[in-house]
Amino acid sequence: MTEQQAGLADDILENGVAMTVPPGFSIDRREGHTDEYFLNMGPQHPSTHGVLRLMLRMDGENVLEVVPHLGYIHRGLEKIGENQTYLQNIHLTDRLDYLSSHMNNLALCLAIEKAMGIGVPERAEYIRVMVCELQRIQSHLLWWGVLGMDLGAITSFLYGFKEREMITDIFEEMCGARLTMNFFRPGGSFADVPDTFIPRVRAVIERMKTAIDEYDTLLTNNVIMHLRTKGIGVLSAKTALAHGCSGPVLRGSGVALDVRRSDPYSIYHRFSFDIPVGTVGDCFDRYKVRMEEMRQSLRILEAAAASFPGGPYRSKKYASYNLPAGSYYSQVETARGLLGVYIEADGGPKPHRIKYRSPSFANLSALNDLAVGHKLADLVPIIATLDVLIPDIDR
Length: 395
Fold this sequence. Notes:
alpha+beta
């Protein structure tokens, strides 16, 4: 038998029906084993939260294997970045995880500041911390609303977006955008915050304290929510670390790793906040971690608003940023986890090489470990509590 004939034989099921086996899969033909089949979930399935294709190997409703297929919206941002100045690269970062735009901007600014020894004024540091924590809450509110909608609780989407709009309005007044926001620059930000910033932040703090309790009543303590998430998609700490998971996904598995605490940047070391962790590592633990993170972000915002200083919002501006030849790295804790920026500089105004270590890519790699042995319907809360963002994966 030729190799081509052997390959064709692998595509024939025992009942004589021809079936193409996708790359990376195998068919179990043991005696007494039920027939397996393959199912495409996506690339435009609503519960995949973007253009993600999951190739599933199924036995009835049982998931035997999950292979993510990426690249549907790949834009080559890292390669484009080699032909952009460092300032132009900042706007590319908010096209990665667009729900963490400000944090992505900050990660690149930190690398540039480290390379050129640029200082940041006190007021600018406070602005950075407050804007990032506002966006963390804003991102988690979208995640919470969409998670509830994925499970059939349409009302949660409306509740989550009600408070989210308050934060989005602050950002729109501040930088003119509501999604792919761009505000930070090396040495601070491109503009000062408006006079309404602190009063509006305080209004968000007061409203969110009550709102999170409402969210718990509506969804957290809902019996259907418990049935759909408890014991589903358990991720052990060992497996999470092996996959390079970070953010709420890693902390949900009991690992209290948060870059704001383990490798503090900006002025996070001045603020008191807790790092919430889970105990089981299931979907419900990842849910609880994000809910508590919103409360901890409110603590940081309240303390920062109480001591918000005056002064300049940015140190000296440069016409161009020519980083000294060498390699530079910075990292921040986004709403989805650790975002790392690696730059190879050659002394010119553009990076020789720029690389992003995105949290969603690493978190998605654990999907097969989470899904195997569960039902097809369980994939929905598993994907939702991973909270992956597809442009953060397809860079």
